[in-house]
Amino acid sequence: MGRADALKHVVAERKDAVLRRSLEVVSGPDGYLVSGRESEVDGFTGRVIGESLGAASAVAVPARLLPAVTGSKTLARRTAVFVKVAPDAREILAARGVLPSGTGIFRTAIKGATAVRSAHLHWVASMLSPKSVLSAQLIYSLMSLRTAVRDTESAVERVGNAADSVLALAQASRAGDVIGHHRSLCRLLDTVDESGVLASADWEAVAPLGPMLEVTVERLRAHASRTLDSVPADAPVSARARHLGAAAVENRLGETLQLLAVAEESVYVWQQLRTERVRAEEPQHLEPILKSVQQQLQEHRDRDSDVVRAIREQLAGAGAIRVRDVPRWAAASKLRKAVSGLRDDLDQFAQAREGQLAGWLDEDAPERPATLGEVRRRAAGAGRVARSTLGSVGNQVSALSHIRGRSERPTT
């Protein structure tokens, strides 16, 4: 090997070493898409979650979405995680350099074996090709859809046989079996994740569901919004207790909110399948589809946030116990019980819609200032080692890596 060849070999090895310890992040309003070598992604995501103290969550990206990486086998073994961080904690971690500030695509090189846990990270904007940028936007949009709603299993279990009654109350009985549609769509998405292929027959079977589910979402949201409109805030305590009890039992406000979360997740699963279909069959139209996905997510987030705040204000007014109500202890007790149950229903919906991370519950969460104070206290000690681990996300990443190693799949 000549001197020039030896120099090229050394440069290539050093470049490989930097890439092996680099992280690439797509930052946007819904969170961060972190990709890189599995150990570095695990360490970085563990640090973000540990220093956010419950104000962050993460989910592993399905193996089929990860683009192929040219180079050594080590470089090819890359993984990705989608991380959501509450706005307040996000600002603090960005100020420290733990997270990149602003939106866009960023890259950092991790120096030293423990630098990811003991030093500031310096993010720089990545200069990627248009194709790579579109690929990153695709994964980001799909993961935003995938994490917009969580824990719908408990919602499905609670609604159960009451789904038809709720749809009738919301004047959405033509929607058909919302729970059945949800299960079918989720099952098909699981199949696409495993096989990497969306068959034409499968897509044609579910294609008509999207617009119908969107109408169902709107009607369920409207029913939830108007349920407490007739509750008189200045009525006697017994009348208010009766009206709020009717909202829970007869108008099924809790079940309506639960079914709304299920219907919204069905819309997002359908959008993921639609995006996969466009990517495979009409890639020239992919970019506008991704923009429409982000617009829909923002619109749903704003509308649901308005519903949560409006119902909270109505409960605060109608559920107030005044001085004149104290002697009527039996009615006051019924009122408190009704308000407590409806607030629990509202909290469950907000949490299912990632409400705590979006800031919907800030005004009613007395523990939040203390939590953020603890985040700031930890942030003051630059270089502190995060004491938590990635937990279940680490298991997801390992499982996806095992699947990738076991069989080669088409990548995008």
Describe what you observe in this structure.
The chain has 412 residues and is an alpha+beta fold. The protein folds into two domains: 171 residues, no CATH class; 205 residues, no CATH class. The protein has a six-stranded antiparallel β-sheet with strand order 3-4-2-1-5-6, sandwiched between helices. Strand 1 and strand 2 form a beta hairpin. The longest helix is centred in the last third of the chain and has 33 residues.
Helix content: 55-70%
Q: Largest beta sheet: what is the strand line-up? A: 3-4-2-1-5-6
Count of separate structural domains: 2
Instruction: Output the structural class.
Output: alpha+beta
Give the quaternary arrangement of the chains: single chain
Tell me the span between the first and last alpha carbons: 37 Å
Q: Main beta sheet, described?
A: 6 strands, antiparallel
Which value, in Å, is the CA radius of gyration? 24 Å
Beta-strand percent range: 5-15%
Separate helix tally: 18
Spell out the blueprint of helices and strands.
Elements: H1 3-20, E1 22-28, E2 31-37, H2 38-52, E3 56-60, H3 73-76, E4 78-85, H4 87-96, E5 104-109, H5 115-118, E6 124-125, H6 130-146, H7 152-159, H8 163-169, H9 178-195, H10 200-206, H11 209-226, H12 237-249, H13 253-281, H14 286-318, H15 329-352, H16 355-358, H17 367-380, H18 392-406
Antiparallel strand pairs: 1-2, 1-5, 2-4, 3-4, 5-6
Pick out its properties.
412 residues, alpha+beta, six-stranded antiparallel sheet, 18 helices, 63% helix, globular, disordered C terminus
